[in-house]
């Protein structure tokens, strides 16, 4: 099989195309022939050395979509030929989704509904599961489903980003009123295409005042990408017993938290990292995300606020550079 790999950390130039032996599945595993792979910020950050490199040779990529090529012993939930989407593919493994074939635990491989494209499947993974985890803190049972967020108001910071877009689409599907912040009219258009009910340009508006107009008692949940910059605002607009769920450190690695506004509202500050969240949370997330895709509630493309950028496998370095450079939308690698 063809795969893009690196043996040393560094810039995107360390990535190179090689031929590797086709993998075979062990017990509880499946081999997926990938049609499309998604590129996330963690891919270039791992490659650049921001996280420890534990394998001699790495093929990056956590997300992808394709068909089941082979099934290992004990797997009865998937069959050869099934259309699937893959999440957390390179977590703890040397070969991710920048390869024609990848062997994965069956638990990390989910059915891709017939009506969903491989573009959609490869765009789920990290963004959709992160968004699901954030939204789950506002539901009674940790599930996100139609009606589970009814009567709730959710504020999504950075609604034009991959996780922000997924959070908007999932929250709308679950019945929430969604408010989002963006930095330009163009990004506002993307957030509206995702389904946001209220879009606020934080570069020109008094965000706290606008949120209070929409939700006088505060928002039930904040999905936050930049806590170092936004925590004071979040505490101002979050409701009593609300949650601020943050999944990134955009804008700074440390935050100063005013204590009284936090404990006086009984606010929960909730961190999210998929790599340490546990298999049960990933399973629940994958089930709920698949249900949303089945209902047509999660999509990609301009019409859903997710412009697509396609690269060939041999252009994986350019795909990494696009994500590192802040490409708006979803960067995909074509493998078929």
Automatic annotation (TrEMBL):
This is NADPH:quinone reductase. Keywords: NADP. InterPro entries: ADH-like_C, ADH-like_N, ER, GroES-like_sf, NAD(P)-bd_dom_sf, Zinc-ADH_QOR/CCCR. Coiled coil: none annotated. The keyword NADP applies. It holds the Pfam family ADH_zinc_N. The keyword Repeat does not apply. PANTHER family: QUINONE OXIDOREDUCTASE. Residues 10-333 form the Enoyl reductase (ER) domain.
């Amino acid at each position: 099989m063809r795969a893009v790999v690196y043996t040393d950390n560094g810039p995107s130039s360390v990535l190179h195309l090689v031929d590797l032996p086709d993998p075979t599945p062990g017990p509880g595993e499946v081999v997926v022939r990938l049609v499309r792979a998604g590129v996330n910020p963690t891919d270039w950050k791992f490659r650049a050395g921001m996280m420890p490199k534990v394998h001699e040779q790495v093929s990056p990529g956590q997300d992808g979509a394709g068909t089941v090529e082979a099934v290992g012993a004990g797997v009865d939930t998937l069959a050869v030929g099934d259309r699937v989407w893959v999440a957390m593919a390179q977590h703890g493994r040397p070969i991710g989704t920048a390869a024609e074939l990848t062997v994965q635990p069956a638990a990390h491989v989910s059915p891709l509904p017939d009506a969903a494209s491989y573009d959609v499947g490869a765009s789920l993974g990290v963004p959709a599961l992160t968004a699901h985890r954030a939204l789950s803190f506002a539901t009674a049972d940790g599930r996100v489903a139609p009606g589970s967020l009814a009567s709730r108001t959710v504020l999504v910071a950075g609604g034009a980003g991959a996780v922000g877009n997924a959070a908007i689409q999932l929250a709308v599907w679950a019945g929430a009123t969604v408010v989002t912040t963006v930095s330009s009219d163009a990004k506002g258009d993307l957030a509206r295409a995702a389904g946001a009910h209220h879009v606020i340009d934080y570069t020109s508006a008094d965000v706290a005042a606008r949120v209070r107009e929409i939700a006088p008692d505060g928002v039930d949940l904040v999905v936050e990408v930049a806590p170092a910059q936004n925590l004071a605002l979040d505490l101002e607009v979050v409701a009593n017993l609300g949650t601020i769920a943050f999944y990134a450190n955009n804008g700074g690695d440390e935050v100063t938290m005013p204590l009284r506004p936090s404990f006086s509202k009984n606010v929960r500050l909730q961190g999210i990292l998929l790599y340490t969240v546990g298999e049960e949370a990933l399973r629940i997330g994958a089930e709920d995300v698949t249900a949303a895709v089945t209902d047509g509630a999660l999509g990609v493309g301009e019409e859903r606020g997710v412009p697509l950028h396609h690269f060939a496998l041999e252009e994986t370095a350019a795909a990494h550079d696009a994500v590192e450079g802040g490409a708006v939308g979803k960067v995909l690698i074509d493998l078929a």
